[in-house]
Specification:
The protein is mainly alpha-helical. Helices cover about 60% and strands about 0% of the residues. It contains 11 helices and no strands. InterPro entries: Fido, Fido-like_dom_sf. This is Oxidoreductase.
Length: about 290
């Protein structure tokens, strides 16, 4: 990512919430192909014979791998077996980041029914869960930043200032109304916009990255693309690499057609890679190797 690039957009990428503002994004270059590729990849997991018999095991493993990947993007790149064996996640900043990602993954599954009717409540709850036992000031947990409050652990920070509290409040409200209004856009498009807006806004003092990725998961599951949560996009985001992740987010934040399209396509590729990971788990279970 260009060090001189400013990932903070000067206006919301989400259009005015009248009508169906996300639908036109599905027509951006490359997005329709990405939607089809994602659907084929996710369908490949669901058609697997092991998935049909042992879907709870696949979902549990996908959740663990997704949480590990989200923590890695936040700077805690632990081996999967380390995440699997550890029980203490409060000892140091990296352990707390892994613990936050694990808690968020569990919370995402509990938020599916609330998200369509109260998305901002869900975001507040996600932050509360992520920050549990963390270093954020208690009064800053579970709510967006207030005037004068800075982002304390900016996972995407390259020196560019986060939007101020007034812009955060206005754009969160706009995003909430878009979710409440519903959309004909594919779940990939909606999930990418939710993730991208939260990444650009950095609405909380801490844990913005992990919350954004958990919200993406909620949309993908609740939107019907991946109802059993077996195609963890977080795995794909980590596999594609942090530089590519940051560059794609900067494109979204630019608000240009190409930038927004590129981010949606990037999210699609991440989901495909998450699906591929779960197919590999299915194959290992079939061989009796996992």
């Amino acid at each position: 990512m260009n060090a001189d690039a400013d990932p903070t957009p000067r206006r919301s990428t989400v259009p005015d919430p009248a009508g169906d503002p996300l639908a036109p994004l599905a027509e951006l270059p490359g997005v329709a192909d990405a939607v089809e590729s994602v659907r084929a990849a996710v369908d490949g997991v669901y058609r697997h014979r092991v998935m049909r018999r042992r879907s709870p095991e696949i979902a549990a493993e996908a959740a663990l791998r997704g949480a590990r990947a989200s923590a890695a993007l936040a700077g805690a790149d632990w081996a999967l077996e380390e995440v699997r064996r550890r029980s203490d996640f409060g000892a140091d900043p990296q352990a707390r980041a892994v613990g936050a990602a694990l808690r968020l993954t569990a919370e995402a599954g509990q938020s599916l029914g609330i998200w369509p009717v109260s998305p901002l409540r869900v975001l507040a709850r996600l932050h509360l869960v992520a920050a549990g036992g963390g270093s954020a000031a208690e009064e800053a947990v579970g709510r967006p930043r207030l005037p004068g409050e800075a982002v304390a652990d900016d996972e995407w920070g390259d020196g560019a200032p986060a939007p101020d509290a007034g812009e955060v409040a206005a754009r969160l409200d706009a995003l909430g109304r878009v979710v409440l209004g519903g959309t004909s856009a594919p779940a990939l498009v909606t999930a990418a916009v939710v993730h991208g807006e939260l990444a650009a806004l950095r609405p909380f003092v801490t844990h913005n990255g992990e919350v954004a990725r958990a919200a993406e998961r909620i949309v993908l599951v609740g939107g019907g693309l991946d109802p059993k949560s077996v195609a963890p996009a977080e795995v794909g985001h980590a596999e594609l690499g942090r530089p590519a992740y940051l560059a794609a987010l900067a494109g979204y934040a630019s608000g240009t057609r190409d930038g927004v399209a590129g981010w949606i396509v990037h999210c699609g590729r991440a989901i495909e890679l998450g699906a591929r990971e779960s197919v590999a788990v299915c194959e290992a279970l079939q061989r009796g190797a996992a």
